[in-house]
Amino acid sequence: MFEILKAVLFGVVEGITEWLPVSSTGHMILLDEFVKMNVSPEFWDTFLVVIQLGAILAVVLLYWGEIWPLKRVIVEGKHATNPQKAIRLDKGVLNLWGKTIVACLPAAVIGVAFDDWLNAHFYNWLVVSIMLIVVGVAFIIIENRNSHKTPRTETMAGISYKEAFAIGLFQVIAAVFPGTSRSGATILGGLMIGVSRPAAANFTFILAIPVMAGASLLKLLKNGLLYTPTEYVILAVGMIVAFVVSLFIIKFLLSYIRKHNFKPFGWYRIVLGALVILYFGVLH
Questions:
Q1: Fewest CB atoms less than 10 Å from the CB: which of 103, 158, 190, 229?
Q2: Over 70: is that where the pLDDT of 32 sits?
Q3: How far apart are the first and last CA of the chain?
Q4: Cα separation values, 19 from 1, 6, 37, 119, 158, Å
């Protein structure tokens, strides 16, 4: 029961930090330092993947209308009083997936080629803390720079293939340096090239589906799923909690950025990065 309660806590933290630009990795490192689950390293690795899948499912549910290409349309029959329904491909959705694939390519190449090496060399508190602070400062600088500018691209549909690829390049930074925050890097990239906050955030959420799902499935195939019934309960609880919390957090962020900027998240990252350095570098 105690491990299940821990799974709830980790699911909550994952659901919150995966979508806010504050680095889920940094929070997981800190939480794991104070609330360790009594599980094997292999199961722990799988657990982190499964709760991430729960967060992804929340995006799929919320954005289903935007990402599913098959649409029911009403077509005229032989008589005007006899309309019929048909299934057709939505070109706008296909175009969005095309941009998503273009944005995914840079990080996918880096991830597949260097994933194990990057985890071995960069997955540590020092890199995480530095990137928390660096990206936090970048958010504050970019928001100050953009405060009197009108975004060049106001909507997600208006994002060009060139802009999508540029956002994908920023995602590489998150793939290489833990603590960057995948959502933080892509949103920051969007803001830097003139994409509005809502458009950058929406594209970031959809971009997460193939990126996070692909990385998670690769790890699941690598780790296997031979666990005890109790361990499966822990996995299910963590995934469901992450899913439910993600639903609320995504809606909150989209509502928040209509009237506010990302500077508070930048300051939060700086403080968190300093706390990580203080704890691991000085007190630990």
A1: 229
A2: yes
A3: 29
A4: 28, 21, 23, 21, 22
Taking the CA atoms of residue 283, residue 264, residue 134 and residue 144 in that order, the dihedral angle to the nearest 10 degrees is -150
Nearest to residue 95, comparing CAs of 60, 67, 116? Answer: 67
Give the range of the structural domain holding residue 238, as residue numbers without chain letter.
2-283
Total structural domains in the chain?
A: 1
Paired residues of 74 in beta bridges: 85
Q: Which residues fall within 8 angstroms of residue 48, CB to CB, at 6 or more apart?
A: 28
Task: Summarize the confidence of residues 210-237 as an average pLDDT.
Answer: 83
CA 129 – CA 63 distance, rounded (Å): 32
Structure tokens at 81: 């009083």
Determine the distance from the C-alpha atom of residue 68 to the mean position of all C-alpha atoms in its chain, rounded to a whole number. Answer: 19
Instruction: Work out the average pLDDT over 221-239.
Output: 87
